Amino acid sequence: DIQMTQSPSSLSASVGDRVTITCRASQTITTYLHWYQQKPGKPPNLLIYAASSLQSGVPSRFSGSGSGTDFTLTISSLQPEDFATYFCQQSYTIPHTFGQGTKLEIK
Amino acid sequence: QVQLQQSGPGLLKPSQTLSLICAISGDSISSNSAAWNWIRQSPSRGLEWLGRTYYRSRWYNDYAVSVKSRISIDPDTSKNQFSLQLNSVTPEDTAVYYCAREAMATRNWFDPWGQGTLVTVSS
After folding, report:
1. Which of A5, A38, A71, B71 has the most CB within a 10 Å radius?
2. Taking all residues of chain B, what is their mean pLDDT, rounded to a whole number?
């Protein structure tokens, strides 16, 4: 199975900050990498697909980059509604696997 | 707009069978560009993909090795829904279970997800 490792596991930041979350795959996954946001009691919500494509309806302050094994999710200017947990997921091979999550908290 | 609605019991005893349904609206379970997945989430295991079913001239299934001997994911074309059955549950199977549509024509992301069902296994 492909292992997905996110860093950091948790992050404290302030409204207006620029934040970057990284995700590393244990082998190459080209751009079969997707990012989700999850709020308490809700299912994950797709933010970025294919490493860098913004899902319809997602604010443009979210962006993704990377290919191969190393990927980043960037939030350019944190808003109050962005405090949540973020997950990466690879779909290069079965089984699809997820990172352990990055919890973004208010400083 | 595709929507997924989950249903099924949330409390089981060890050795019982977990059964959940995911009803699809806005798409066809027989779509050639989608697969229909079950994923669970627990504090100890994180997000764990369990398996999927999809139609490409015939029905296919893929399952996670960790549950392969106990799981069945089946389509119901008459009701445009699919089901999850997990046999011989233990407390380790306690989790929130989600169904999700996989976009197979491109890079296979999950969107949308069902609302989630908390399943607790306890004697």
Report:
1. A71
2. 97
